[in-house]
């Protein structure tokens, strides 16, 4: 039977950079290479894809986080053991999220790593989904903690989209989306106190138009 697996591109935003969760393989093929969090779908344990997804998140200690299916890839070449199919998911976690397995790697350091199978393609697919969808939705907010300032929201979008935003226009768009709730608290520090917000809806909300960098 062809292998059917689930691979997850898990990202966090930490210290102004996107980081990816990987672990090293301890068995062939690709022994000692880095791989994404993954599991082989087990028909005796996984009632459906959601059950498999929750099992994978639980095995890695990631708990409740945002995730969505990106694509399905399958062919005879991706695994030297034979035909293999994988369902690729994108998962976004909080800035200080930790996992019970693996290590976090800055995206800028991935070119120096030996990746197993076709995981370079899977990562590219996940990042493509994140960046494209971030232009017309609230997706980057799931990279923030439970409470955040508007400046932190804008910075998350700028890091994901790799472009600066016009602050006034960006905030107008965020408020128009009507997805933030004022917690009644403020963050204090070197700057003036800033209002802390939380997400009203845990789902990803679409904007009324596509965001175009500094013009957003």
From TrEMBL:
Q: Which SUPFAM superfamilies match?
A: Nudix, Winged helix' DNA-binding domain
**NrtR DNA-binding winged helix domain span:** 141-199
The record's section on InterPro entries has:
NUDIX_hydrolase-like_dom_sf, WH-like_DNA-bd_sf, WH_DNA-bd_sf, WHD_NrtR
Q: Output the CDD domains linked to this UniProt entry.
A: NUDIX_NadM_like
Segments crossing the lipid bilayer: none
Q: Which domain of life is it from?
A: Bacteria
| UniProt name for this protein | DNA mismatch repair protein MutT
What species does this protein belong to? Aeromonas media
């Amino acid at each position: 039977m062809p292998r059917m697996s689930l691979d997850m591109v898990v990202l966090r935003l930490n210290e102004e950079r996107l980081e990816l969760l990987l672990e090293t393989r301890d068995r062939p093929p690709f022994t000692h290479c880095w791989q994404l969090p993954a599991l082989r779908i087990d028909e005796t344990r996984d009632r459906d894809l959601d059950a498999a997804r929750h099992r994978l998140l639980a095995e890695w200690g990631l708990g409740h986080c945002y995730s969505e299916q990106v694509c399905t890839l399958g062919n005879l070449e991706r695994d030297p053991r034979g035909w293999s199919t994988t369902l690729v998911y994108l998962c976004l976690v909080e800035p200080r999220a930790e996992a019970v397995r693996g290590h976090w790697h800055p995206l800028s350091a991935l070119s120096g790593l030996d990746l197993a199978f076709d995981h370079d393609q899977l990562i590219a697919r996940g990042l493509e989904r994140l960046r494209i969808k971030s232009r017309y939705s609230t997706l980057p907010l799931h990279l923030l903690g439970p409470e955040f300032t508007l400046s932190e929201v804008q910075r998350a979008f700028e890091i994901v989209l790799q472009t600066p935003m016009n602050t006034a226009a960006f905030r107008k768009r965020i408020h128009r989306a009507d997805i933030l709730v004022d917690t009644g608290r403020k963050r204090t520090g070197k700057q003036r106190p800033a209002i802390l917000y939380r997400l009203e809806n845990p789902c990803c909300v679409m904007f009324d138009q596509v965001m175009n960098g500094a013009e957003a």
